[in-house]
Every structure is written in C-alpha cells, then in structure tokens.
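Researcher: We plan to redesign the surface later, but first we want a full-length starting point. Tokens attached.
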C-alpha cells in the first residue's frame, strides 16, 4: 500500500483577483510524475466560528441568506479574519459582537477545521464562548441581514439531528461544544 505524498507545485499564478475572491492557478506534479497545469485553488482568509452560551443556557445562533446555497440558513456566528494580523480568539469575539451585539466573558479554543481542503485554503478556528450577553448593536456589512436566534442548549442537538442546522462548520462546532459541556457535567 502506498502512503499519500504531497504534490509538488511547479508554478503558481493568480487567475482572478477581486476584493471578495482570489483564485489561484497551480501547475502541480503528482507523486506519480503526472503534471496537471490547471489546478485551481480558492485562496481564502482564515475563519473564526463561535458557540456562544448565555448565563441562561441559550446558544446564540444567526439566521441569514447564503447566496451560493440560495437559502436562508441557521448557523453559529463567525466570519473571516487576517491570521497574520489578528488573534483567532479575538476575531471570534469580534465577529460575534459584529453579527449579534453579544459579548462574552470567556472564550476557549476547541480546534481548527479545513473548510474544503481539496479546493480552498480556508482554515476555520472553533471556539466555545461562555457568559454571552447582549451588550450592543450588531454592525453588519453591506451583504448581511442577520436574524439573531437564541436557542436553549437542550434544543441544539435535536436541531442538528433534524437537519435544521446544516452548515458544515457550525454542525462540527456544535457537536464539539456539546461534548465539552457534557463532559463538564459528568465530572
């Protein structure tokens, strides 16, 4: 059985550049020697996603229109940030506040995920945040119209299992955060 090997990048160029999107075209050599001259990669900034829990035991979700899917979806608050200039935890807290007006008293990293490692560079940092409280007003960008939805902690798993929460990183973070919270109760 052969072990996976990284591909060798022979050349790389920007195929398309816009303030919202960067597409790179790589020429790569596969481990078997085959050369592919048009492997396209979406170059995306890092993301931060937060599972914010209030003192009343509610999790703050957002519902918003997602154009590529063409649907209004329920998900956890989060967004993109520049990993070279901003700490992931600070970015998560900032994104939470910008989208919902909620601040948190503590924020703990739960891990990182690759959003779509076959075709894009995005790494998403996942956080459990506690002590979430409404302390201000959201400040959305021109593409956002967000409905803030507090959901009782006990209703999160049923919403996951029914498919009401279906954005992949939100699903992953929900399961991770619920596991951490359940382990605390079990101790």
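Model: Full-length starting sequence:
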């Amino acid at each position: 059985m052969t072990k996976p090997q990284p591909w060798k990048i022979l050349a790389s160029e920007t195929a398309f550049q816009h303030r919202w999107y960067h597409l790179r075209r790589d020429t790569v050599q596969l481990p078997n020697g085959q050369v592919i001259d048009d492997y396209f990669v979406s170059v995306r900034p890092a993301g931060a996603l937060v599972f914010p829990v209030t003192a009343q035991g509610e999790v703050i979700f957002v519902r918003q229109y997602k154009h590529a899917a063409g649907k209004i979806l329920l998900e956890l608050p989060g967004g993109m940030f520049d990993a070279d200039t901003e700490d992931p935890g600070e970015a998560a807290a900032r994104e939470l506040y910008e989208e919902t007006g909620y601040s948190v008293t503590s924020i703990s990293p739960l891990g990182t995920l690759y959003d779509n490692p076959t075709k894009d560079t995005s790494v998403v940092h996942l956080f459990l945040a506690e002590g979430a409280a409404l302390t201000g007003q959201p400040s959305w960008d021109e593409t956002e119209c967000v409905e803030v939805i507090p959901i009782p902690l006990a209703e999160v798993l049923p919403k996951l299992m029914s498919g009401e929460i279906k954005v992949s990183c939100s699903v992953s973070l929900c399961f991770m955060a619920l596991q951490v919270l359940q382990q605390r109760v079990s101790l």
